[in-house]
Amino acid sequence: MGLISKLPLVMWELYAFYAFLPLLIAARLGGDGAMVSVWSFAAIASGFVGCTLGGYLSRHVGSARVAYVQLSASGLCCLVSPLAFLAPLPVFLAFLLFWGVVVAGDSPQFSTLNARFAPPRLIGSALTLANCIGFSITIVSIALLSWLVDTVGPQYVFLMLVPGPVVGLMGLRRLTRKAE
After folding, report:
1. Is the pTM of this model over 0.70?
2. pLDDT per residue over 109-121, tens digit each?
3. Domains defined for the chain, CATH in brackets
4. What spatial distance separates the first Cα and last Cα of the chain, rounded to whole Å?
């Protein structure tokens, strides 16, 4: 469970993205509350695509590889989010939809990996522990972003989420080399 115990760090960015997405959209769109709601919902709901496609792809290339690609893409989205904020509106909105796909799509793969590599008698405990660690880490990332948003602005705050994907990718690297 040592390697897999690093994987809850990927939740560092998932719920913080969900929590601060409306703020980012509002900063870009202005005061149109209805449009903020619509685009926030669309970006969050697009995670369905990432989870579904990831599940199908994992049957062919393995859960670790699917999680690695989606987590890499999500981390990259964190890095380029300030540039996307400045992009033309259609590009910005498409970026958020893409980010919504990849930010959520790795989660079921991590649960699968956790269940696969945990000792059979401890699978339930391993999944519970990973979720508890993940949600605890989420509290920290959301609190950090809340503290920083007024200082750096909503367009830059997602840069602070990059460490989660980086640590998660380091934990996944060894698994992606193994044949599943």
Report:
1. yes
2. 988 988 888 899 9
3. 4-174 (1.20.1250.20)
4. 17
